Fold each of these.
Amino acid sequence: MTKYYFLLFLFLLAGESFAQNNLDSLVQIRGFAIAAPRPDGLPDFIKFVNEELAPRKVNTLILRVDYNYRFESHPELRDSVTLSKKDVRKLVDACKKQGIAIIPQINLLGHQSWAEKTENLLKVYPDFDETPWVKMPAKGEYKWPNPDGLYCKSYCPLHPGVHKVVFELVDEIMEAFEAKAFHAGMDEVFYLGEDKCPRCAGRDKAVLFANEVQKIRDHLAMKNQELWIWGDRLIDGRTTGIGLWAASYNHTYPAIDLIPRDVIICDWQYTRDNQTAVYFAMKGLRVVTCSWNRPEIALQQVDSHVRSRDLSNKELKGRFYGLAHTVWSGPTPFLKGYYANTQDPKDGDKTPWNTFKVMFEKIGKLETGH
């Protein structure tokens, strides 16, 4: 009998291991993306990591750090309140304990402003601005569309001083977060290769975009680190009908054939499952499909991910790399809505927190085959 129970124990242990390995083989990346917490919100965020992310087997945390870190290389670029090395260490230790890899993000190229606010890089180094003639509106006066086509500012990728600054920031947070991958953002780049720019005028926008991806990727590769970016600028918005936000209208999309094949694409298609993950995979790129605030779309994306892997040959299968949930706020409002299960005044349960719960409940069921 003792031998019987021992064999049963081994069988159950192997079964548990197989279930985990099976989930890993189906959804290699199980991600969660959000802004990094401020210091006063760190304890609550670590609690969320331990009690909510880990039980759902989230294994990748994409943190939008930007200037929310006490940079030593460029203290002039710090936010007024920032995470210290000690704060980051607490978060890194918590994630290590739970088997969660942190991927820090600083928005590079685009998203150098938002509404009426100029972000720190162009505020401190205005000569990096791709469109210095476009003036920021007064507070409360930003509107879209507008005569200048202003959504977010970009830095000029050909400015001779910009990469020294941004790469020093990248290197510093990569070391602080002990990260093996970096997320450069690079989404919704509307300003690039502008006619009035003395460096970029007349240049192919796709080549400019691809060269910037290559430059960032090569910098990271010197330390055996990976580059992750959002995928919208690599999709033809007109031909696909996806539009100018989740795809490109300014001819950056041919860059998909110019960028290195080891760049990881985070494919955000929030209002419908556009099957763009198949496009990226067919181009030889690993793709992580991203949800936001539409639970029904997130469920379709989980189904599409599993189906695509099932239907793919061995070359394609591994390129359907995983699924991630994205949150476009700081942790504090998200956690408030999450724990209170707050409804949206207009859309009811179409919230980032409910979408996260629904999506990862379905991912969890893949492990048991339900």
Amino acid sequence: MNVPKMLHSFKYAFKGVKVLLQENNARFHLLATVAVVLGGILLKLSFAEWSATIIAIGLVWMAEAFNTALEKLCDFVSEGYHPLIGKIKDLSAAAVLIISVCAAIIGIIIFLPKILANL
């Protein structure tokens, strides 16, 4: 195992995060992530609740990264409009929507009872 080479490869991952954060939707996810983490701290989530929350956040970010990568690849392959490219982009965006809705449901299950208990 070449540790310096492995650590150097993280440079590309961080470049990818920088590219991702240039996207409007990723900025929204960043704002939502910050809000959820702050809310979790204020509401004192349990270990299990934090685990579910972090998994949900990670899945949304992963889907957004794949969606952005696929959109950029599609734009590279086809400069003009193509119906199949449009469907590919729509499906990729649908994946983000699906996991985002699931994450929101997880958030409601975890946060709503705590919020209501603190009213």
Amino acid sequence: MRYVTSIERLAKEEGIVENARESIITVLQTRFGEVPSPIVEVINKIEEPSVLKMLHKSAIAIPSTTEFQQVLDSLNSGK
């Protein structure tokens, strides 16, 4: 098995995070059209894969971008 350096591991994790962000935004665009820039900005700042996974599921099921924004707001208030 090949040794994976910490830099390679970080690059892989960053790729996973970036793909997750893009997936969330794509789902929101597909469902609602243009995604408000404040939502995109918040999504692009999130680094935790588990949070992004939860947001992806929410983006699929949530009825509006307004309610998605409320989910994002609740994440920020929980910090």
Amino acid sequence: MKKTITVLITCFIISSFSTQLSFKDAQLKYPRVKQAYKDKSKCISKLLKSHNISNAEIYIRAFKLEEKIEVWAKEKTDVTYKLITSYPFCFSSGGLGPKRQQGDYQIPEGFYVIDRFNPESNFHLSLGINYPNASDKIKSNHHRLGGDIFIHGSCFSVGCIPITDDWIEELYILSVEAKNAGQTSIPVHIFPFYLNEDNYEKHIKDTSISGNHSKFWTNLKEGYAYFETNRTVPTIEVSEEGHYIFK
């Protein structure tokens, strides 16, 4: 009898392991993701192959003034990233400056990661970011900071970044592929504008644009410059005052 129970338990464990789905397989059970792969997988494969990448890790950065998302990628075993594609915003709400409360219509600014994949989004497909992050929580004076910030499809939003159904399918697949290959954290860095020296000096002097954000943007510029110099994503910590620290 004990032998029979042991055999049954062993069979159940083996069966459980054999039926576990990969992240990609689980996503492909959703009709929109399945159709996106059908329509876009060949062009995504071609895109990665053109950059000699077969096992990708990705990094996403967005620029509010220029209304652009950049996608950088690297081979999993490599150190530095390459720019592989970019997507325009389809719509933008709010103005320059960070998001500090619910209902301010602002797209956040800062250093985030993708924390959710939504294959049944009201906006076709969507990738959630972890706003509010530790810095946002410290720097905001409001009790209700808001949340549910996504990069998604469609062409309308309040505080999110819509890039049309067509483009979100590509970005969603790239993100699924990266996570499925073992990337545990996909960084999403959102900047007010390109923070190179000339652009920074131009906008920081224009008080109608910079307002009271100059110190915050100077802090963001450190993270921007780190990647521009090294083509690697810095390790980011947050001080007790809410400032970003880059290592």
